[in-house]
Specification:
The protein contains 16 helices and 8 strands. The chain is of the alpha/beta class. The longest helix is centred in the N-terminal third of the chain and has 36 residues. The chain is globular.
Length: 415
């Protein structure tokens, strides 16, 4: 009797995981189709005026690079301003940013710490006054570098009707270590197979924390108020509940510094999973029920996206089924029925192994060196299992932690 109940439970879990994987595989195909059949955006005159915000906590090593970089973008200099938010800094971040040519907003608040609170405060200082003439806010991290055409691409998309946009998140240091290589593969493939796919299908993309653009009227309409550990995910969910989709700007590239070591990576990804679990608890049912009532696949997709830590753990359970059966086989009978998962794992593993390199090839990221990192990329993916478990357990701990950035690179080296 107990064995039958366990089998029923595991079959249900297998069907859930199969459905989740099949959905993501089916949608990812459209990321490849977008390359061939995606809508081309018209070129517009530089009509939009941008306020660029760079939250920075003790970023004296890298802050000058991004300010100098932004001063050289291919956009009229009187149509954008650079604001560095020196957030609870105890180093020379504010002075260096000011000397580099940015307007500096210094903020000291020991209780409301973190990027979300810093942005909320800065928006109130700059965007909400009656004399503000900005059309859109653009957000970067202090360690970023930006393609010269970034604002031009955002201007084109805004003029074409988009209200919120995410740019292509590239890697500033893909070859520094096996961790940076793994991060880079993950982000590059997600850009093509997740973000491009949703753009092509008319669903909502996801804000990725940096390199995104928001129409000022949207901020005035719904406010920011995204202050959890993953403020980007929370703001995406708020947008969707208000009927505003996130668009995709594939040619607007932002180069992000990836963590160098497994320890740094572990802490960062644990924070992400803590935030995912928190946002899932607060937004999943609102989005899912609203999506069912309105028959809106984009809402359902966003709801499902917040379940990432739980789906990763479910995947870990599926991986354990063959091991459990091999260890506790009862005569010729398997302890756990495994009619769905093994075949799906084989098919899904093969297709993903092929689709990721294909997506990298589409975006000119594929190199022979990356193939050498594939075994370690698999290890990187497996580390998500304990990280997700830790994130779920610690979801109530909302203490923000800073990731140290040290990689000084010029945009000329990257482009």
């Amino acid at each position: 009797m107990l064995k039958d109940m366990i089998n029923i439970l595991f079959v249900i879990l297998q069907v859930l995981f199969f459905s989740f994987g099949l959905f993501y595989f089916a949608t990812s195909v459209y990321g490849l189709a977008e390359k061939l059949y995606g809508k081309k955006v018209r070129n517009y005159l530089p009509l939009k005026r941008f306020a660029i915000f760079i939250p920075a906590h003790n970023e004296q090593i890298v802050i000058e690079n991004i300010v100098e970089n932004l001063k050289e973008v291919n956009y009229p200099k009187d149509s954008y301003d650079i604001y560095v938010i020196a957030d609870n800094c105890s180093d020379q971040t504010a002075e260096i940013a000011r000397n580099a040519g940015a307007s500096v907003l210094e903020r000291y608040d020991s209780k409301k710490r973190g990027k979300g609170f810093a942005l909320q405060w800065a928006f109130e200082q700059v965007l909400y006054g009656e004399d503000s003439e900005y059309d859109a806010a653009v957000i970067f991290d202090a360690d970023n570098l930006v393609s010269r055409n970034f604002l031009k691409e955002m201007n084109n998309k805004l003029c074409d009707g988009s209200k919120v946009l995410q740019g292509y998140i590239d890697s500033k240091n893909p070859n520094d270590s096996w961790i940076t290589a793994s991060y880079s593969i993950a982000f590059w493939s997600a850009n093509r197979l997740f973000q491009c796919a949703r753009s092509y299908l008319g669903m909502s993309c996801e804000i990725g924390g940096t390199g995104f653009c928001v129409d000022v009227q949207v901020l005035k309409q719904i406010g920011w108020q995204a202050t959890c550990l993953v403020e980007d995910l929370e703001f995406t969910m708020k947008l969707m509940l208000n009927g505003i989709k996130v668009g995709w700007a594939h040619e607007a590239v932002v180069y992000d510094e990836k963590p160098l070591t497994l320890g740094q990576s572990w802490n960062q990804r644990r924070r992400w999973m803590q935030g995912f679990a928190d946002v899932n608890a607060r937004y999943f049912w609102k989005l899912f029920i609203k999506g069912i009532k309105e028959r809106n696949l984009a809402l359902i997709d966003c709801a499902v996206y917040t379940t990432q830590p739980y789906v990763i753990l479910l995947g870990a359970v599926m991986l354990c089924i063959p091991l459990i059966n091999a260890t506790y086989m009862d005569g010729d009978m398997y302890i756990i029925s495994a009619k769905v998962a093994p075949m799906f794992f084989q098919l899904y593993g093969i297709t993903q192994f092929l689709m990721i390199p294909l997506s990298l090839y589409y975006d000119k990221k594929l190199t022979y060196k990356l193939f050498l990192y594939y075994p370690t990329y698999i290890l990187y993916c497996l580390t998500w299992i304990p990280i997700s478990l830790q994130g779920i357990v610690m979801m109530k701990n909302k203490e923000w932690s800073h990731t140290l950035h040290t990689r000084k690179v010029s945009i000329q080296e990257l482009e």
